[in-house]
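Fig. S4 source data, part A: sequence.
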Amino acid sequence: MEHADLDASIDHMVEHKPLDELMLQRLKKRRLALRDKIARLEMSLDPKEPA
């Protein structure tokens, strides 16, 4: 849910000027960190090698 909220916030900031570039950069970095965390959790649940 938090990832979707970040996407919405970023889209809103991009559509409405003036942009706060620093805040936008921080939100994008946080979104990327969440995406990485989700990927790691998915890989831990579904390992590629058979047990």
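Fig. S4 source data, part B ends here. The longest helix spans residues 21-45.
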